[in-house]
Amino acid sequence: GAVVSQHPSRVICKSGTSVKIECRSLDFQATTMFWYRQFPKQSLMLMATSNEGSKATYEQGVEKDKFLINHASLTLSTLTVTSAHPEDSSFYICSARGLAGDLNTGELFFGEGSRLTVL
Amino acid sequence: AQSVAQPEDQVNVAEGNPLTVKCTYSVSGNPYLFWYVQYPNRGLQFLLKYITGDNLVKGSYGFEAEFNKSQTSFHLKKPSALVSDSALYFCAVRGVAPSKIIFGSGTRLSIRP
Choosing among B9, B38, B51, which should be mutated to test the A contact, i.e. which has the most A CBs within 10 A? Predict the structure, then answer.
Protein backbone atom coordinates (compact mmCIF):
# COMPACT_ATOMS: atom_id res chain seq x y z
CA GLY A 1 0.00 0.00 0.00
CA ALA A 2 0.93 3.64 -0.35
CA VAL A 3 3.11 5.13 2.39
CA VAL A 4 2.88 8.62 3.78
CA SER A 5 5.63 9.83 6.08
CA GLN A 6 5.09 12.68 8.50
CA HIS A 7 7.88 14.45 10.39
CA PRO A 8 8.46 15.26 13.18
CA SER A 9 6.30 12.87 15.18
CA ARG A 10 6.62 15.03 18.27
CA VAL A 11 7.67 18.62 18.70
CA ILE A 12 7.78 20.90 21.70
CA CYS A 13 8.25 24.61 21.18
CA LYS A 14 8.02 27.87 23.03
CA SER A 15 5.11 30.21 22.61
CA GLY A 16 5.70 32.67 19.78
CA THR A 17 7.91 30.44 17.69
CA SER A 18 7.01 28.79 14.38
CA VAL A 19 6.95 25.07 13.73
CA LYS A 20 7.07 23.25 10.41
CA ILE A 21 5.59 19.80 9.87
CA GLU A 22 6.40 17.83 6.73
CA CYS A 23 4.23 15.30 4.95
CA ARG A 24 5.78 13.13 2.24
CA SER A 25 4.33 10.49 -0.04
CA LEU A 26 7.11 7.92 -0.30
CA ASP A 27 6.06 5.63 -3.12
CA PHE A 28 3.48 7.57 -5.07
CA GLN A 29 2.80 11.05 -6.34
CA ALA A 30 0.24 12.90 -4.30
CA THR A 31 -1.69 15.47 -6.26
CA THR A 32 -3.75 16.32 -3.22
CA MET A 33 -2.82 16.35 0.44
CA PHE A 34 -5.03 17.11 3.39
CA TRP A 35 -4.21 18.45 6.82
CA TYR A 36 -6.27 17.51 9.83
CA ARG A 37 -6.24 18.51 13.44
CA GLN A 38 -7.35 16.16 16.17
CA PHE A 39 -8.11 17.17 19.74
CA PRO A 40 -7.98 14.59 22.53
CA LYS A 41 -10.80 12.07 22.30
CA GLN A 42 -12.27 13.82 19.29
CA SER A 43 -12.60 13.21 15.60
CA LEU A 44 -10.44 14.64 12.85
CA MET A 45 -11.14 18.18 11.79
CA LEU A 46 -10.16 18.98 8.21
CA MET A 47 -8.09 22.15 8.21
CA ALA A 48 -7.15 22.53 4.56
CA THR A 49 -6.76 20.85 1.21
CA SER A 50 -3.43 21.25 -0.51
CA ASN A 51 -3.00 20.81 -4.26
CA GLU A 52 0.43 20.64 -5.82
CA GLY A 53 1.46 23.95 -7.33
CA SER A 54 -1.53 25.94 -6.15
CA LYS A 55 -2.76 27.66 -3.03
CA ALA A 56 -4.31 25.60 -0.31
CA THR A 57 -8.04 25.69 0.27
CA TYR A 58 -8.82 26.30 3.93
CA GLU A 59 -11.90 25.19 5.78
CA GLN A 60 -14.11 27.74 7.40
CA GLY A 61 -12.70 29.01 10.66
CA VAL A 62 -9.09 28.03 9.95
CA GLU A 63 -6.70 30.97 9.89
CA LYS A 64 -4.68 31.02 6.69
CA ASP A 65 -1.96 33.22 8.13
CA LYS A 66 -1.68 31.05 11.20
CA PHE A 67 -1.43 27.73 9.43
CA LEU A 68 0.69 28.12 6.31
CA ILE A 69 0.50 25.24 3.87
CA ASN A 70 2.86 24.70 0.96
CA HIS A 71 2.63 21.88 -1.57
CA ALA A 72 5.69 22.52 -3.65
CA SER A 73 6.04 19.09 -5.22
CA LEU A 74 4.04 15.95 -5.88
CA THR A 75 5.60 14.26 -2.88
CA LEU A 76 5.82 16.97 -0.23
CA SER A 77 3.43 19.24 1.61
CA THR A 78 4.35 21.31 4.66
CA LEU A 79 2.27 22.84 7.42
CA THR A 80 3.83 25.72 9.31
CA VAL A 81 2.19 26.82 12.54
CA THR A 82 3.27 30.44 12.87
CA SER A 83 3.64 32.26 16.17
CA ALA A 84 2.45 29.20 18.02
CA HIS A 85 0.44 29.51 21.21
CA PRO A 86 -0.52 26.88 23.79
CA GLU A 87 -3.99 26.58 22.26
CA ASP A 88 -2.34 25.37 19.04
CA SER A 89 -1.16 22.28 20.90
CA SER A 90 -2.77 19.35 19.15
CA PHE A 91 -2.23 16.25 17.03
CA TYR A 92 -1.83 17.16 13.38
CA ILE A 93 -2.32 14.51 10.73
CA CYS A 94 -1.74 14.68 7.01
CA SER A 95 -3.18 12.44 4.34
CA ALA A 96 -2.61 12.08 0.64
CA ARG A 97 -4.37 10.97 -2.48
CA GLY A 98 -2.55 9.63 -5.51
CA LEU A 99 -2.81 10.41 -9.17
CA ALA A 100 -5.10 7.54 -10.06
CA GLY A 101 -6.94 4.59 -8.67
CA ASP A 102 -8.44 6.16 -5.62
CA LEU A 103 -9.23 9.51 -7.19
CA ASN A 104 -12.92 8.82 -7.41
CA THR A 105 -13.36 6.58 -4.42
CA GLY A 106 -11.86 8.97 -1.92
CA GLU A 107 -9.56 6.52 -0.19
CA LEU A 108 -6.81 8.31 1.67
CA PHE A 109 -3.40 7.33 2.97
CA PHE A 110 -2.46 8.86 6.30
CA GLY A 111 0.76 9.94 7.91
CA GLU A 112 1.55 8.89 11.46
CA GLY A 113 0.68 12.28 12.88
CA SER A 114 2.65 15.00 14.64
CA ARG A 115 2.00 15.94 18.23
CA LEU A 116 2.68 19.61 18.82
CA THR A 117 3.07 20.94 22.34
CA VAL A 118 3.44 24.67 22.76
CA LEU A 119 4.75 25.77 26.13
CA ALA B 1 -24.98 17.30 3.05
CA GLN B 2 -22.98 14.14 3.55
CA SER B 3 -22.58 12.96 7.11
CA VAL B 4 -21.89 9.91 9.22
CA ALA B 5 -22.88 9.18 12.78
CA GLN B 6 -21.27 6.81 15.24
CA PRO B 7 -23.75 6.53 18.08
CA GLU B 8 -21.42 4.79 20.52
CA ASP B 9 -18.46 6.55 22.09
CA GLN B 10 -17.18 3.29 23.50
CA VAL B 11 -17.73 -0.40 22.87
CA ASN B 12 -16.48 -3.04 25.29
CA VAL B 13 -16.17 -6.67 24.24
CA ALA B 14 -14.57 -9.75 25.73
CA GLU B 15 -11.80 -11.36 23.72
CA GLY B 16 -13.13 -14.09 21.46
CA ASN B 17 -16.61 -12.62 21.26
CA PRO B 18 -18.03 -11.03 18.13
CA LEU B 19 -17.88 -7.26 17.92
CA THR B 20 -19.94 -4.62 16.14
CA VAL B 21 -19.16 -0.93 15.80
CA LYS B 22 -22.11 1.01 14.50
CA CYS B 23 -22.22 3.65 11.78
CA THR B 24 -25.12 5.31 10.00
CA TYR B 25 -24.84 7.66 7.08
CA SER B 26 -26.70 10.36 5.24
CA VAL B 27 -25.72 11.09 1.66
CA SER B 28 -27.06 12.49 -1.55
CA GLY B 29 -26.27 10.13 -4.38
CA ASN B 30 -24.37 6.89 -4.11
CA PRO B 31 -22.56 6.42 -0.81
CA TYR B 32 -18.82 5.85 -0.73
CA LEU B 33 -18.15 4.57 2.78
CA PHE B 34 -14.97 3.79 4.67
CA TRP B 35 -13.70 2.49 7.98
CA TYR B 36 -10.38 3.58 9.44
CA VAL B 37 -8.62 2.55 12.65
CA GLN B 38 -6.35 4.70 14.79
CA TYR B 39 -3.95 3.35 17.38
CA PRO B 40 -2.70 5.67 20.16
CA ASN B 41 -0.57 8.57 18.90
CA ARG B 42 -0.66 7.24 15.37
CA GLY B 43 -2.23 8.21 12.08
CA LEU B 44 -5.22 6.45 10.61
CA GLN B 45 -5.07 3.12 8.85
CA PHE B 46 -7.52 2.13 6.16
CA LEU B 47 -9.59 -0.96 6.99
CA LEU B 48 -12.14 -1.28 4.21
CA LYS B 49 -14.44 0.56 1.87
CA TYR B 50 -17.79 0.17 0.16
CA ILE B 51 -18.20 1.65 -3.30
CA THR B 52 -20.53 -0.73 -5.05
CA GLY B 53 -21.18 -4.44 -5.32
CA ASP B 54 -21.62 -6.93 -2.50
CA ASN B 55 -23.14 -5.53 0.65
CA LEU B 56 -20.67 -7.45 2.80
CA VAL B 57 -17.21 -5.95 2.45
CA LYS B 58 -14.15 -7.71 3.80
CA GLY B 59 -11.15 -5.74 4.96
CA SER B 60 -7.90 -5.86 6.88
CA TYR B 61 -7.24 -7.74 10.14
CA GLY B 62 -10.35 -9.91 9.76
CA PHE B 63 -12.79 -7.02 9.85
CA GLU B 64 -15.83 -6.77 7.62
CA ALA B 65 -18.65 -4.30 7.22
CA GLU B 66 -22.21 -4.70 6.06
CA PHE B 67 -23.77 -2.05 3.86
CA ASN B 68 -27.51 -1.76 4.48
CA LYS B 69 -29.19 0.70 2.17
CA SER B 70 -32.63 0.53 3.75
CA GLN B 71 -31.22 1.27 7.20
CA THR B 72 -28.53 3.61 5.88
CA SER B 73 -25.99 1.76 7.98
CA PHE B 74 -22.46 0.51 7.52
CA HIS B 75 -21.62 -1.37 10.71
CA LEU B 76 -18.13 -2.74 11.27
CA LYS B 77 -17.94 -6.34 12.45
CA LYS B 78 -15.53 -9.04 13.44
CA PRO B 79 -16.50 -12.61 14.38
CA SER B 80 -13.91 -13.01 17.14
CA ALA B 81 -12.31 -10.01 18.85
CA LEU B 82 -8.65 -9.80 19.80
CA VAL B 83 -7.12 -7.65 22.54
CA SER B 84 -4.99 -6.06 19.82
CA ASP B 85 -8.17 -4.77 18.15
CA SER B 86 -8.47 -2.21 20.93
CA ALA B 87 -8.25 1.17 19.19
CA LEU B 88 -10.26 4.13 17.95
CA TYR B 89 -12.42 3.41 14.91
CA PHE B 90 -13.71 6.00 12.47
CA CYS B 91 -16.47 5.62 9.94
CA ALA B 92 -16.19 8.01 7.00
CA VAL B 93 -18.07 9.04 3.89
CA ARG B 94 -16.92 10.74 0.75
CA GLY B 95 -18.17 14.30 0.57
CA VAL B 96 -20.06 15.90 -2.28
CA ALA B 97 -16.71 17.00 -3.62
CA PRO B 98 -14.64 13.86 -4.20
CA SER B 99 -11.68 15.39 -2.48
CA LYS B 100 -13.35 15.56 0.92
CA ILE B 101 -13.74 12.75 3.37
CA ILE B 102 -16.06 13.36 6.29
CA PHE B 103 -15.31 11.44 9.46
CA GLY B 104 -17.60 10.31 12.21
CA SER B 105 -16.89 11.14 15.83
CA GLY B 106 -15.10 7.87 16.42
CA THR B 107 -15.80 4.84 18.61
CA ARG B 108 -13.28 3.57 21.09
CA LEU B 109 -13.20 -0.21 21.03
CA SER B 110 -11.89 -1.94 24.14
CA ILE B 111 -11.31 -5.67 24.13
CA ARG B 112 -10.79 -7.23 27.54
CA PRO B 113 -8.80 -10.45 27.93
Answer: B38
Q: How does DSSP assign chain B, residue by residue?
A: --EEE---SEEEEETTS-EEE--EEE-SSS--EEEEEE-TTS-EEEEEEESSS-SEEE-GGG-EEEEETTTTEEEEEESS--GGG-EEEEEEEE-SSTT-EEE---EEEEEE-
Q: What residue of A is the nearest CA neighbor of B96?
A: A106
Contact A107 B103 (CB under 8 A): no
pLDDT tens-place string over residues A2-40 = 789 999 999 999 999 999 999 998 888 888 899 999 987
Q: Which amino acid is at A80?
A: T
